[in-house]
Design brief:
- By secondary structure, the chain is mainly alpha-helical.
- The chain has a single domain, classed as [2Fe-2S]-binding domain (DNA polymerase, domain 1, Orthogonal Bundle), CATH 1.10.150.
- The chain has a 3-stranded antiparallel β-sheet, with helices on one face.
- Helix 1 packs across helix 4.
- The structure holds FE2/S2 (inorganic) cluster.
- The site of FE2/S2 (inorganic) cluster (FES) has 11 residues, from loops.
Length: 120
C-alpha cells in the first residue's frame, strides 16, 4: 500500500501507526469499468496468475514510477548526478521486494514499462 506517497508492506505495519496518514490501497486506484492505467496494463500484459500478490505489485508499481520520476536512486543507479532513467534494471531492482509465487515477473515488468512509457 502507499502511505503518504511512500510504498510500505501492509503486513509489517499497524493501522494505529498511521492515524491521519493518506493511505492508498488497490481499492483506491480504480474500479471495474474505470481502471487505473496500471491496473489495465497488468490485464493487458497478463501481469498476474493467481492474483494473490497483484494488489501489492500494482501499488508498488505506481510508487516505483513516482520514485524514479522524483530522481530517487536505487542500488542499480549508475550515475547519481543525472536524472534517474526508467529502465528494466531500475524497475526490477525496485520491485524486488514484491514476490510473486506464480512467477509473473516478466509480464509485470512489461506492464510497468508500458505505463512508464519505456521498452522493457
Ligand atoms: S500472481 Fe500468483 S503470486 Fe503473483
Amino acid at each position: 500500500m502507499i502511505v503518504d506517497g511512500r510504498r510500505i508492506n501492509s503486513c509489517l505495519t499497524l493501522a494505529v501507526m498511521h492515524e491521519g496518514d493518506a493511505i492508498t490501497t488497490i481499492e483506491g486506484l480504480g474500479e471495474p469499468g474505470n481502471l487505473h492505467p496500471i491496473q489495465a496494463a497488468f490485464i493487458k500484459h497478463d501481469g498476474f496468475q493467481c492474483g494473490y500478490c497483484t494488489p501489492g505489485q500494482i501499488c508498488s508499481s505506481l510508487a516505483v514510477i513516482e520514485e524514479i520520476n522524483a530522481n530517487i536512486p536505487s542500488h542499480v543507479t549508475k550515475n547519481l548526478t543525472d536524472q534517474v532513467a526508467i529502465t528494466a534494471a531500475e524497475i526490477r531492482e525496485r520491485m524486488s521486494g514484491n514476490l510473486c509465487r506464480c512467477g509473473a515477473y516478466s509480464n509485470i515488468l512489461d506492464a510497468i514499462s508500458d505505463v512508464a512509457g519505456v521498452k522493457a
